[in-house]
Amino acid sequence: MLNGIAASRGIGIGSVCVIGETDLSYDKNKAKGVTEEKARFQKAVRDFKEETMAMAEDVRKRIGAKEAEILEGHLVMISDPSMAGEMEKMMETGQCAEAAVEAVCDMFIGMFSKMDDDMMRQRASDIGDIKVSLLKLLLGIEDVDIRHVAPGTVLVAKDLTPSMTSQIVKENVVGILTEVGGKTSHSAILARSLEIPAVLSVPNITELVKNKDTAIVDGTEGVVYINPEGDTLSAYIRKREDFIRKQSELQGFLGKETVTADGERVELFCNIGTPKDAAKAVECDGEGIGLFRTEFLFMDRSHMPTEEEQFAAYKQAVTTMGTRAVIIRTLDIGGDKDIPYLEMKKEENPFLGYRAVRYCLGNPESYRIQLRAILRASAFGKIKIMVPLVTCVEELRSVKRMVEEQKRALEKEGVAFDKEIEVGCMMETPAASLIADLLAKEADFFSIGTNDLTQYTMSVDRGNADVAYLYSTFQPSVLRSIKNIIEEGRKAGIPVGMCGEAAADPMMIPLLIAFGLTEFSVNPVLVLSARCTISKWSVKEARELAERVMALTTEEEIAALLKREMRE
Amino acid sequence: MVSQKIIVTNEQGMHMRPASVFSQAMSKYASSVKIQFNGTEYDAKSVMMLMSACIKCGAEIEIQCDGADEADALKEAINLVESGLGD
């Protein structure tokens, strides 16, 4: 068994085809003359552009516009004066075309691969791809044609360049294995959009296999087997069938309403971290945004974002969602999220300290800017404001007062906003849970954050390995707390959502249905599986199970029962 | 020469697409267009140079245009950055 990075989910079993490295050596002193070298070079560039354009067009049709952009990027780069121009300058000093291409490309590769930015480092592999293509054209080397590999092939290569991956035919390739590349590399993105299982960064894989070997590619777990034993093979054949069956079952939930087995409608929203993710939520069939974290606007920079910057980000998210709701959580920093320019004091107990709404209310001049930006964006869709880490009614009141102030200011300036904008509480502290009835009278909605609620209820730092065993949403105390929040919200007639990881957990879902949760907010990729699980429970069955669960005494018993009864 | 400071606000910073939109727009001017960032000067007509600057969201850059059509060039450069560089 070999391990690598699980880059594209699914299981592929097939016959290996190793794509070897091409010999690109040449005689460095082969230059015939400046004019000749330049002419050879210009012809190679012309051919390169022609081939790349054709490939981009093909990829756009077969795979998608986003994937074709990678190749179009190659065209932009080779057309840049500092690429072709620099290469020609070198030829003018008597270098052959090959040496000029290699030197300039290597210079840029060196520059980009040193950058502390994942996407920028990708440019290094783009330039490497351009270099190889140009050298092949100059040396007259024909490319291996991946397009014509036999059906049932597992492609194995040191690295798959975009020009190679763009030739992959989904019908023939059942798996991809490489020695380099991570989750965000071109090969990974392409493999995912073609839905081909892929495991990347498997050490020495090109040397460990030979053509016609049988390989199992488990792209979900990041595991590879070469020439597996009969038992392993048959186990994986079953696994592959299960995976395919599950995938097609889940696809059947695309575009469907989220309803329980007995027809009770609930909302299924998404958690997002940047405005761009909203598109992902739409693509994954999310019915709204249950948690839009705004920290990204404040992190990795040197000063506070302006009102305009924030407004643009909120507006982008809300316009992407159309008429669907977007719940924006106001700044939740502190705890483990440090932002250097805010110069927050080092604290003995940051999770119990000056964070989230406490910090915001203590810095009203910055908080006002955020509220104003959110209000302005509310003119473009359905926005709700969510206050994190509420522990007492006064905090909610203070935020609502500030919202009203900003509304009046905007009204005076004649700026449009949603006058009916809702302000709700993120329920993530034992204090908020215990006064849920009081908060429910003044909040427009609740959203339960299970990660912090569990941590604070159990008084456990889940990053601390010695106590992490206590961190479980299935602790009776945490479940009682969740039940109480939902019931108090329902009593007061306000919607209650959940935006923690537990909302997508198939073990948790029946309990949430039983307690009366109205909105589940999950990671976009989990929308269909959550919708599927919800559809398998009637409210009556869920309540029966919840009754049994709530009568149990220990976490162990509860988790065991829920696991037995789980429906996926 | 005319110049102006501005903050890059598009989420991805000067990545492939924004950089290529910007460099292509600037290439049509006769004036030279440079970007000052982190104490280094970059040719804004070159997508490679722009990307090599590793300018991220929230970064402050100074755009300098020098030549016959410098005012127009600077105006378009600022507009482009403000509108998020087509991102």
Notes on the protein architecture:
The complex is a heterodimer of chains A (about 575) and B (about 90). Chain A has about 575 residues and is of the alpha/beta class. Chain A has 3 domains: about 20-140, Enzyme I, Chain A, domain 2, CATH 1.10.274; about 145-250, 3-Layer(bba) Sandwich (Glucose Oxidase, domain 1); about 265-540, Phosphoenolpyruvate-binding domains (TIM Barrel, Alpha-Beta Barrel), CATH 3.20.20.60. In chain A, about 50% of the residues lie in helices and about 15% in strands. In chain A, the strands form 2 sheets. In chain A, strands 1-8-7-3-4-5-6-2 form an 8-stranded mixed sheet. Chain A is globular. The two termini of chain A are about 30 Å apart. Chain B contains 3 helices and 4 strands; from the N terminus they run E-H-E-E-H-E-H. Helix content of chain B is about 35%, strand content about 25%. Chain B is globular, with a radius of gyration of 11 Å. Chain B has one domain (about 1-80): HPr-like (Histidine-containing Protein, Chain: A). In chain B, strands 1-4-2-3 form a 4-stranded antiparallel sheet. Chain B is of the alpha+beta class and about 90 residues long. At the A-B interface, helix 2, helix 3, helix 4, helix 5 and helix 11 of A face helix 1 and helix 2 of B.
Outline of chain A: globular
As a percent range, the share of helical residues of chain B equals 25-40%
Question: Quick one: how many beta strands of chain A?
Answer: 16
Unreliable runs of chain B, pLDDT <50, ≥5 residues?
none
Overall average pLDDT of chain A: 92
